[in-house]
Structure formats: C-alpha cells, structure tokens
Amino acid sequence: MAELTPKERMAIGRHEMPVQDEKVRAGNFDEVALGYSQETAIREAERCLQCKKPQCVEGCPVGVRIPQFIKALREGKMAEAVKEMKAKNNLPAICGRVCPQESQCEGRCILGKKSKPVAIGRLERFVGDFELTQRTCPLVRAKSTGKKVAIVGSGPAGLTCAVDMGREGHSVTIFESLHVAGGVLVYGIPEFRLPKRVVHAEIDYAMDCLGIEIKTDYVIGRTLTLKDILEEFDAIFIGSGAGLPMFLRVPGINLNGVMSANEFLTRVNLMMGYLFPEYDTPVKIGKKVAVIGAGNVAMDAARCSLRLQTMQSGGHNPGEVHIVYRRSRQEVPARDEEVHHAEEEGIIFDFLTNPVEILGDDKGAVRGMRCVKMQLAEPDASGRRKPVPIEGSEFDMELDTVIVALGTSPNPLVFVDAAELQRTKHGTVIADPITGKTTVDKVWAGGDVVTGAATVISAMGAGKRAAADMHKFLSA
Amino acid sequence: MSEFGKGYRILKKEILSDVTKLMIIEAPQVAKKAQAGQFIIIKIDSKGERIPLTIADYDREAGTITLIFQEVGKSTIHLGTLNEGDTVDTFVGPLGHPTEIKNYGTVMCVGGGVGIAPIYPIARALKEAGNEVISIIGARNKSLLFWEDKMRAASDELIVCTDDGSYGRKCLVTDPLKEIIGGGKKVAQVWAIGPAIMMKFVTLATRPLNVPTIVSLNTIMIDGTGMCGGCRVPLKEGAQFVCVDGPEFDGHAVEWDSLLGRLQFYRDEEKIAADRFKHECNLDKAMRRQ
Ligand SMILES: Cc1cc2nc3c(=O)[nH]c(=O)nc-3n(C[C@H](O)[C@H](O)[C@H](O)COP(=O)(O)OP(=O)(O)OC[C@H]3O[C@@H](n4cnc5c(N)ncnc54)[C@H](O)[C@@H]3O)c2cc1C
Ligand SMILES: Cc1cc2nc3c(=O)[nH]c(=O)nc-3n(C[C@H](O)[C@H](O)[C@H](O)COP(=O)(O)OP(=O)(O)OC[C@H]3O[C@@H](n4cnc5c(N)ncnc54)[C@H](O)[C@@H]3O)c2cc1C
Ligand code: SF4
Ligand code: SF4
Ligand code: FES
C-alpha cells in the first residue's frame, strides 16, 4: 500500500471501540469493550502522524515508544510492535484497558487539537492481547547474580519491579497477602473492564519466563515482618498499595447494608460473589443502591451493583443505582470512558449532593439516606471550588444499600516492627520520588503506598524506576 | 500460575462432639509466629470463601496449627468432610493481636460452645504466667462439650455447666460467674469467648462490678488484613476492625446489639449455601452407592 499523506491520515476518523450492547451487558460480567479487529487496528494506526517530537510520549508516565510501536503495528510487524512496547511497559494488555488515556498519552496527541487523538490505548491493548497468545518476545533472564530480592505486594508496582529485577538476573520472591496475585487488578477492577484471565496470563507469562516465585498467603507484618525479610534478602521493594478503606463520618455507618467499596468489590471480584452460590462468598445487593463518591472505584461499584441487580431479578432490572457526589460533573475524577459507560447502562448521577446521615429501620438495616444539596464556592487559592452545603436543602433518599467509595490509604500492617521506616501523616511511605529509596537501608517503595491511590501506570512507573536503582545498588 | 495450589495438608482429624471437629494442619510459616489469641483464615478450594478460625494450639517444631471448629454452615460443614491427607488451598496467618498475657492475680476464663477451644490456650498461658485461673465452660448440652480435661489442667478451678443440665451444673455460664465475682472474690480480669450473645451477657454481668472483661469477637470477615472493613465492630468510641485491631476488645465498650445485627446480615445466603452443599453431598453419596 502506498504511504498515506498526512492529510489523508488526518481524514481518517477515529475508530470506535466495538462494545457489548448496553442492555445486554447490564446483565452480565463479560467484558464491555470487545477490542479492535486486526483490520480496524491497522486502520487506526494509519492515523498516527509519526511526530518528530511526539507529545503523546510525554503524556505517558512510563514513556511508551508510541510512534514506534504504532508504526510497526501498521506495517504488520507484530513481533516488533511487541518489542517496542515491552521496552517500556511490561503489562500492555492491562494498561491498554485501564489507563486514563484521555489525561495521559491521548490527552497530548497532536491530532486531538483538530479532531480526535489516535486511540493509543486501544492499539496498546491490541498489541498486548496479541502477545498474550503468541508470546513472540519472551522475557529473558540475564545470568544469575546470586542476589535475592523480596517484593511485598503483587499489584502493578510490585509486579513491574519483580519483572525488571528478574530480567537483570536477580532471584525474586513476591510476598502477597491474598490468595491470588495482581493487587487491585484482581480484587478491585471488575471482570467486565479487565478480565481476570488477562491479568493471570500477564502474570504467568512474566513468571514463566523469569522464574519469579510468588508466595501468596504471606501477610507481611504478621506471617513475616520486614525485619525477617531483611535477614534473608539483599533488597526489598514495598508495593503494598493503598488498601485501607475510609468510611464516612456520619451517623448510621454501621447499619446492615452499608459497606466499603473495597468490601463490595472484593466480594464480587476476588471471591467471585456474582456467581454465588456456585462460589461460596455471598454478596448482597439491594433494590435501591447509592454509591458515595465518583472516582473509578465508585463507577466500578455502581456498575457491579447494576449487574447484580439485573442478574438477581432475572433480566429486567426494576432497581436503581445512584452515584452520590458532592461536586459537579466537571470534577468527576473517574475515567471518561467509565462515566460514559455508566451513564449508558442507566446509573443515576446525583451531583452536588452530600450525605449527612444514613437512616436505619428497627432491625438495624439501611432504609435511606439523608442528604444535603451543595453548591460550589468561588475557586480558592489552589483553584479548586469547594462544595458548601445549601442551608435547608436536606432531603431523604429511600435506599437499602449504601456503598462508600471515598478513597483509601496505605494499610499500616506491613509496617509492624518497622518504626524506622518513615511515613507521612497520611500513612504513605516517604521515598525518593525518582528512585523510590526509603529511609531504611536496602528498602525501596513505590506505587500507591507512596503516592496514595493513583493509577496502574504510575505504580508501574514507580516499580520500574525503583528496580533500576535497586539493580544499581546490588551491582555496586 | 498466579494462584498457587500450594495445598496445606490436614495431618490429623479428631471428632470432639457431634458438630465439633479438631484438625491439625501443616503450615510452618504460620506456626513459627502463632500466639494465643490469634487466628488464621482458611479457604478450602478455588470456589470457597475465606473464613476465620482461632489458633487453638500450635507446634512450632512440627510446623502445625490446631483448629477446632463447629459445623454451622457451608464452609465449616465442608471442612468437616475433609480427611487426614487432604489439603486446603489457602491458610493464612497468624492474624490479629495476641492476648496480653501477664500476671494479673486472679483471672477468670469463660468459654461457651466452640469458644472453649480459643479460651484454652489463653487459660493455659495465664496460669503459666502465675495467675490464679478460675474457668467456666458451658454448652447447650453434654454432647457439645469438649476439652474438660485440658481446661481442668489449665485452671485452678473449673466449673462446667450445660443449658439443659445433661452434664455439670444446669445453668448458663453467667450464673457461676455472677456468684464468684458477686461473692466478693477479687477478680482482676475476665476473658469470655463464645457466641456473641453469651459474651454480651458476660459483659452485662461484670459491668456493675467494674471487672475488666476481654471478649474475642467473631464478626464476618473476608481478607483478615484490614482491607475491606466488613469486620468492623461498633465500639462506643467509633468503629474498629476486628481483624487488625482485635480480635480481643474491652467487652464493656462493644455495642452488642449492633454487632449481633451485623452477624445476621447474610443469613439467607448462608442457608442457601449450606442447603446446596448438603444436597450435593447427598447426591454424591447416592451416586457412590450406585
Ligand atoms: C476499584 C478500582 C478501580 C480502579 N480503576 C483504575 C483504572 O481504571 N485505571 C487506573 O489506572 N487505575 C485504577 N485504579 C487504581 C489502581 O488500580 C492503583 O493505583 C494500582 O493498582 C496501584 O498499584 P500498587 O501496585 O501500588 O498497589 P495494589 O494494586 O493495591 O497492590 C498491592 C498489593 O499488595 C498486597 N499487600 C498489601 N499489604 C500487604 C502485606 N502486608 N503483605 C503482603 N502483601 C500485601 C495487596 O494484597 C495487593 O495485592 C483503580 C483502583 C480501584 C480500587
Ligand atoms: C477471629 C475469629 C475467630 C473464630 N474462631 C472460630 C473457631 O475457632 N472455631 C469456630 O468454630 N468458629 C470460629 N469463628 C467463627 C467462624 O469463622 C464461623 O463459624 C464461620 O465463618 C462460619 O462459616 P460457615 O460457612 O460454616 O457458616 P455460615 O454459612 O457463614 O454461617 C452459618 C451460621 O453461623 C453464623 N455465623 C456466621 N459467621 C459467624 C461468625 N463469624 N461467628 C459466629 N457465627 C457465625 C451465621 O449467622 C449462621 O447462623 C471465628 C470467627 C472469627 C471472626
Ligand atoms: S501505558 Fe497508558 S499512558 Fe502510556 S501509552 Fe499506554 S495507555 Fe497511554
Ligand atoms: S502525538 Fe499522536 S500523531 Fe503524534 S506520534 Fe503521538 S500518537 Fe502519533
Ligand atoms: S476482614 Fe476485611 S477488614 Fe477485617
């Protein structure tokens, strides 16, 4: 095929992602976005202008070689596309699905100025999925260095650090407190956004190639402490995430029917509660559900609620799921695509609304929630518009389930017996922003445990940078 | 593989009563750190749920943990069907804080039903620390009692009672408790472990006399590491997580009615799961008979 001119490239419209019909998908946990066909992927790749100074790469927290992988892809050189991708990103099938591309790579794509950006995330997913089945570019392990590295936590930060350390020839052991590896990727993000088979396959791939050992059922701070680990290993990376849920401080929070998004999502995703009673862990969903908060976690909780309602009512869903958020639409922190999908599926958004009390019945179960209407004040010094209650605007919502998705902080369990490891007053680990080095000898940290709840790709970036520094330390 | 079927082996199984079983399970990494008052989380197979069980005993050298459980629903009934040599998928711990053992003077240990299992290592440790230990164990009837001999050895005095009088005194555990602390005996601290309703009444009995009372709460759990908040318990000063802040708490600070309500939340689902399991077991048996 003849080379296209830039003009011709720009004339090609961005390719929509084929998705499962919204009516059908509201009743199952199958993946919503179906993925590009090879033909569509190549057509979409043709849109890229191969910029000399690609802005898109600047927008990616790990600097994926975007023009290079896209070029290889459109020339049909899949193995090369994979190689370019894997040079910076070990988990493309995951990032392609869950990165907030609109505020990262795609947000900077030059095409976005005039029309719509290249669908970098979707192309990345295409390359990642190809590789999971083809394995063209097996990760290779350098000659053994004889050094032992321990990784605490098997989320994206820990996994990325493990892979990079494994490649360098260090012997790597991951300690994970849950019974499966993957962190938020398996216990938080639902099947319909990120199928578990994709996560397991990415992990198995890396483990097979590099001989990394994953010890599940090891709670650091209990089964072993960091001190115990330091006696046996030459370096430690802590990637234990930010898994401690925050609860609202309002009356009624201990009523039956109020749960944290973490509990709800863990029951649904990790324990496969949506398949109860085939799986043993139950998950109870009411007919009228309110999810408090509007981040990715809240969207996931709301969309899982809707699916459970539909499944439990046998098809036609007579229930309601609300997102209750104290700011306005503009401030919603969740990914665009998630908000869009949630709206399509019929989630009701109550903006500028803040709960003041959860109301219970005489049996101690939720019957409703008292809320107050909010308005946004003038921007303060930081430019943020603070929501303030409108006096006298209280009203009651009738509900039977309340899911609290107000954010999380690092779980302090891992720091038992590690008083020397300095942390901020928010409980996050103090670490060098580049290298991830903590205040304790031989200990690095990265991901949500350092930054507080952030993104998959920023956690991966932190794991990567720490691995580079750890390798330097171990080779010295 | 990302989910290792490591398999923790059941080395020994013993039937303590119609519905109570003891199992010794191989888990050296847990045994190494285990202390009285802590618990583990067990998940039988890939479709199983994670349930908490107290460490009834441990052997660091053999690398084993002893569990005692009452068959109350799907998971515990299922566990009870496993035999020596079988394995379970997940076994994680030790979780929670250990009991604070020191010489308090005279202490009382009250165990109800399956709560006798977790109270035993506490009584034993308290006695070893030089306390005078007065223990009360009770159950609905004689067939549900176990470890009387062990409890006797771990106590200076042991009172046994049953609800129906089929063995020992016919009374609730709170009756002898009230007699002893009401009779002027100086008791420094009481430990009570058993059904939530029993622990509630023990704390009601000790409150007027201001005897500090430690209870071990058995809320519903998932992860056991502070991640879900499902185990949160309403205390007077705010909610805490039983799995990481407990499982032992000052019984006088617990909002019992709220806790009792939370334990009931999944009752319908628990029944569905148990019935389904029993049905499958019966089918299995029927098939084998053919
Ligand atoms: C519901 C939900 C949806 C999200 N959606 C998106 C999205 O669409 N896009 C996006 O980019 N980001 C999203 N995020 C955020 C993203 O998932 C996290 O920022 C990222 O997973 C952080 O990675 P991490 O490796 O630092 O920690 P985690 O993924 O949290 O992994 C930490 C691991 O450490 C383990 N661990 C913790 N304590 C111990 C201990 N004491 N001993 C042993 N192991 C321990 C945990 O069990 C866990 O497996 C979402 C988060 C949630 C909760
Ligand atoms: C820290 C801790 C330590 C524990 N130690 C022991 C132990 O050593 N031995 C033991 O037999 N049990 C112990 N339990 C209770 C045990 O976890 C539950 O009995 C078990 O989870 C029930 O699971 P199931 O599927 O068999 O029954 P389910 O189907 O879950 O429940 C069946 C019935 O038991 C009740 N129930 C459910 N969960 C609990 C609970 N957590 N406590 C009390 N009743 C419950 C339900 O209301 C229902 O009536 C402990 C609980 C905790 C939190
Ligand atoms: S890793 Fe995320 S931000 Fe980077 S290129 Fe891929 S989708 Fe974009
Ligand atoms: S900015 Fe857009 S057009 Fe330019 S190289 Fe990146 S993806 Fe291609
Ligand atoms: S069991 Fe999840 S926080 Fe305690």
Report helical residue fraction of chain A.
25-40%
Order of helices and strands of chain B: EEHEEEEHEEEHEHEEHEHEEEHEHH
Q: Which structural category fits the helices and strands of chain B?
A: alpha/beta
Give the percentage of residues in beta strands of chain A. 15-25%
**The first-level CATH class name of the domain at 106-216 in chain B:** Alpha Beta
The name CATH uses for the topology of the largest domain in chain A is FAD/NAD(P)-binding domain
CATH superfamily of the domain at 106-216 in chain B: Nucleotide-binding domain of ferredoxin-NADP reductase (FNR) module
Distance between the termini of chain B: 37 Å
Total DSSP E strands of chain B: 17
CATH architectural label of the largest domain in chain A: 3-Layer(bba) Sandwich
N- to C-terminal separation of chain A?
A: 51 Å
Uncertain spans of chain A, ≥5 residues at pLDDT below 50?
A: none
Kindly report the CATH topology of the domain at 106-216 in chain B: Rossmann fold
Domain tally of chain A: 3
Give the CATH architecture of the domain at 106-216 in chain B: 3-Layer(aba) Sandwich
- Return the CATH class of the largest domain in chain A: Alpha Beta
The strand line-up of the biggest sheet of chain B is 12-11-10-9-13-14-17
Give the helix proportion of chain B (percent range). 25-40%
* Average pLDDT figure of chain B: 90
CATH superfamily of the largest domain in chain A: FAD/NAD(P)-binding domain
Instruction: Please describe the biggest sheet of chain B, giving its number of strands, its sense, and whether it closes into a barrel.
Output: 7 strands, mixed
